[in-house]
Structures are given as structure tokens and as C-alpha cells.
Amino acid sequence: MRSPDFFATAMKRIAIIGAGPIGLEAAIAAMDGGFEVEIFERGKVADAVRQWGHVKMFSPFGMNSTARGRERLERSGASLPESNELLTGAEFRERYLLSLARSLPPDVLHEDTAVLAIGRSGVLKGDHIGESVRGNTRFRMLTRNATGDERVVNADVILDCTGTYTQPNGLGDGGIPAPGEGAARDRIFYGIPDFIGRDGKRFAGRRVLVVGAGHSGATAVTGLVELGSAETHWLLRRDRALPSEEIPDDPLPERSRLAAKSNRLVQEGRVTLHRAASIESIANLNGALPVRIATPNDEYSLVIDEIIVATGFRPDLMLARELQVQTCWATEGTYPLAASLLGEAGADCLKTPAFGAEMLMHPEPNYFTLGMKSYGRAPNFLLRTGHEQIETVLDWLSEKESSTITITSRSTR
Ligand SMILES: Cc1cc2nc3c(=O)[nH]c(=O)nc-3n(C[C@H](O)[C@H](O)[C@H](O)COP(=O)(O)OP(=O)(O)OC[C@H]3O[C@@H](n4cnc5c(N)ncnc54)[C@H](O)[C@@H]3O)c2cc1C
Questions:
Q1: Phi-psi domain of 133 (left: phi exceeds 0; alpha: psi -120 through 50; beta: other)
Q2: Are 19 and 129 in the same domain?
């Protein structure tokens, strides 16, 4: 139980880190809730979405946006996509997220401003272990803008919406980098290439190995075949005859179409599957990449030209290192939420367990991780879940804010 002291500090000022889809929605929701808001973005608005802008989203626009956001833009006369439209990341950014950002009052959004570290004024990580009294001092964040200027920004509440997209997982066995991975970096693509745009030339007519199952692996494999790669190989750590899990009566038709198509390419022999396999090493020999592959019964070399890594992403845990943050040892997601998600483990991200604000809390008072980062390495985050997280946390903060006002006014009577 939290001590009454905990409620004695009014929490007016919320700093949001990351202007992705969740940071932006959190900003407008927090402003509607009467909080002072500032949002800090390392690059440009929705920078991660911009990077995978060529990829078609599997959930429709209605699920990727909030009623709050749509109403806000409609009030200003914007014309929005239809609720059932399947947009690319670039379309989602241009037709919705950039408009949301433009709707923010001046001085709320700071682009090209990275948050480098978060601490608390006068309190070290090891002080007041797990005690709510830590919440009596303000957060201080070190920020750096594009010209290299550094400054400290104070806040009462932090919503860390920094996602995971810029932190890809390693390629080798056990999740660590494979020997030679660093040296071959210019021939390894982390994420999903833009085959019909800027990356087409790089992969057309080449021998390519895609590493990793899931939606990203399936997208990369189908994209390569459509582009016309010379050979397409698909390496999975798991032992599955069909790489993509097809969910019966999948309510997301785009996801279902992609899973079926990628499996069909394997069945038709247009994609060579390496299952229950891991990468032992990568060499760079006269421009070709001989890759050593191990399976339970065999070890062999495969010579290819390029590697696409679709093994997922992990959160940046350094950012909040000076705070008392509790993440799951398996997924690096926020601990209570991660434990609940592991209990529900399954392929269908639509089946998210119900959660309250306590699921999103760390021992550090008033520091919340929202959006993709709250799931850590777990790949099944949906924007719709992030929208629920925002409302849950802001309701909790508003309730706390009103308790503060009641306590303060009682004590000053
Ligand atoms: C290819 C792809 C397709 C997807 N398709 C769907 C889909 O169809 N439907 C769906 O529901 N979900 C989808 N997702 C999953 C998820 O919804 C998205 O990843 C979504 O972008 C997550 O939003 P976010 O705001 O949590 O994080 P992000 O979009 O990653 O945004 C984080 C932001 O924080 C910024 N940032 C990071 N570190 C710092 C720092 N230190 N200081 C300041 N700023 C920082 C980044 O530049 C970025 O702009 C997809 C994911 C991928 C990769």
C-alpha cells in the first residue's frame, strides 16, 4: 500500500519519450486530461514507422488509431482513411500520425531531441529501495538535440514510449551475434527491406538467406520471391514444416493471407527451408558469404550473397538504468505485464489479457513503459493494446491527481 506522502506531490508535468504512434496518442490523451505535456523524439515524428513505411500493415486503420485522435483531426477538417483501410506504414504516418503531431500546440513536441538518460533529482538508484517516497522528487532527463546541445528536463511523470525498432536481436545461436556477423555487417539487413523501392537493386538476382519466422520473416520471404531473387533461403530456429502459423478463422485477413502465402512458397519449393537450424558463423569470401549452419543432426555450409535478419527487436534498457525498473528476465518487457502475457502465450495478439495500471507499473513511482517497449522482445504487440494502456495509465494518474488535490486542500484548511 502506498503511503499518503506518495499522493502529496501533484503530478502536473508529463514527459513522453518517443513520438511514435503510442507517444503521440499518449500526448493528446494527457493534454485532454489536463496535464502539461512535452514529447521528445530522437528523430522525426514516427521515425520507426517511417523506416518500415514500405510495409503494409496487417491491422486496419480503425484499429491503429483512436477515437480521440480521429475526432481531434476531424474537428480540424482533416479527411481520414476509412476504418477498414489497410495502409502501409508510410500512409499511416502521412495520413494520420503527422496530422496528430501538427495538431499539438507549439513547444509540446521536440523533434531531433534524444533522451539519453533518466534519473531522479537528489535520489540514486539504490536509495529508498521500492519505496514510494522516491516519487516525492522529480525526474530529471538528460536530452541532446541535433546540434549537440545537452540540457536537463524535469518531469513528474515519465511515459517511456521509445519502442524497440532500432535494437535488432543478434543473428547467431543463443541470440548472440554470430562469429563474423560484425565484419559482414554491410551485407546484412536488419528488418524488412523495401524491395520495390530503395533496396530492390541490392536483392534482385541475389542469393538471400532470411533468418527468423514471424510476420517480418514471412514478409521478407514473399517480398524476395516477388522481386526475383536468385535463391531464397529461410532459416528457422524452431522445427516446423510450415514456418508461418496460420490462425483458424483469423480476424485479420492480411495476416492470414501473408501466413498462407509464405507457407505455400515453401511447399512449392520456391523457398528453401532450413528448420531447427542455427547460424554458427559467417565468412566473407571474395564477395560471397559462406554461412555455417547447424541442425540437430548435421552441419553444412550455404553460400549466399545477402542476409536479412528478421529475428525481432529488444528494448533499450540503458535509458532508465538509474531508475528502479523491473523487467521480465525472459522478454525484457514490463514485469507484471510480461508475466501475464507469458501465461497467455500464443500466436494471436488479439487475445490480450485484460490489465489494469498495476500491470504497467515499475517499482519506480510514476515511470511507465507504454507501447511496443512494454512488451520487450515479445513480438505480438498491437497498437490497439497500446491505446488501452494509455487510457488505463492516464485514468490512474488522474485519480491520483484528484486525491492529491483533496489531501492538499484538507491539509491547508
Ligand atoms: C514492420 C512492422 C509492421 C507492423 N504492423 C503492425 C500492424 O499492422 N498493426 C499493429 O497493431 N502493430 C504493428 N506493428 C507493431 C507496432 O504496433 C509498431 O511497431 C508500432 O510502431 C509501435 O509503436 P510505438 O509508438 O510503441 O513505438 P515506435 O513506433 O517504435 O516509436 C518509438 C519512437 O521513439 C523514438 N525514440 C526511441 N528512443 C528514443 C530516445 N532515447 N529519445 C527520444 N526518442 C526516442 C523513436 O525514434 C520512435 O519514433 C508493426 C511493427 C513492425 C516493425
A1: alpha
A2: yes
Ligand 1 pocket test, pick from 88, 334, 381 with the greatest ligand atom count within 8 Å of Cβ, gives 381
Instruction: Give mean pLDDT, residues 113-136.
Output: 96
Do 159 and 177 reside in the same domain of the chain? no
Please identify, among 280, 309, 338, the residue that sits at the C-terminal boundary of a domain: 309
Distance of CA 231 to the CA centre of its chain: 31
Going by alpha carbons, the residue nearest to atom 37 of ligand 1 is 162
Q: Which three cell numbers stand for residue 65?
A: 488509431
Q: pLDDT, tens digit, for every residue of 67-85?
A: 999 999 999 999 999 999 9
Is 80 exceeded by the pLDDT of residue 305? yes
β-bridge pairing 157-160 and 367-369: parallel
Give distance in angstroms: CA of 329 to centre of ligand 1.
22
Helix, strand or coil, per DSSP, at residue 33: coil
pLDDT in tens, 266-294: 999 999 999 999 999 999 888 899 999 99
Residues whose CB is less than 8 angstroms from the CB of residue 226 and which lie 6 or more positions away in sequence, other chains included = 195
Do both 143 and 262 map to the same domain?
no
**Mean pLDDT calculated for residue range 357-369:** 95
pLDDT per residue over 28-53, tens digit each? 999 999 999 999 999 999 999 999 99
Residue minimizing CA distance to atom 35 of ligand 1: 18
pLDDT at 10: 54
The Cα 101–Cα 1 span in angstroms is: 38
Among residues 263, 292, 309, the one where a domain terminates is: 309
Which atom of ligand 1 has the smallest separation from the CA of 143? 42
Query: 21 CA distance to ligand 1 centroid (A)?
Result: 7
How much is the mean pLDDT over the chain?
91
Name the residue with the closest Cα to ligand 1, atom 21.
49
In ligand 1, which atom is closest to the CA atom of 371? 26
